[in-house]
Amino acid sequence: MDAIDRDAKLAELKHLIEKQSVGSVEELANKINLSRATFFRFINHLRIREQREIKYCRKNKHFYFETIK
Fold first, then answer.
1. What is the distance of C-alpha 49 from the center of its chain?
2. CB 53 within 8 A of CB 43
């Protein structure tokens, strides 16, 4: 994966989190064509870049941003 492709996938992941797209980790990873492990690396990268915590709601099955205090 080159830098342009990585940045596009990060932007798409951020968009999915912001709109609280419903789905399991595997479903969301498949939406942007990532493995499960790469998906979690991208989540950690976004946490650092956005300086916000990313949480998962099991009840509603979606990721969401939470401001780090």
1. 12
2. no
> What is the C-alpha separation between 30 and 44, in angstroms, rounded?
18
69 pLDDT band, cuts 50/70/90, is low
Distance CA 35, CA 19 (A): 21
Residue that the structure tokens 């064509």 belong to: 33
Note the pTM of the prediction, 2 decimals: 0.86
For tokens 């789905």, the residue is 23
Rounded to whole angstroms, the Cα distance separating 18 from 21 reads: 8
* Overall residue count recorded for the chain in this entry: 69
Closest CA to 23 of 58, 55, 66, 47: 58
Output the six-digit token pair for 11: 């932007």
For 13-35, what is each residue's pLDDT tens digit?
A: 999 999 999 998 999 999 999 99
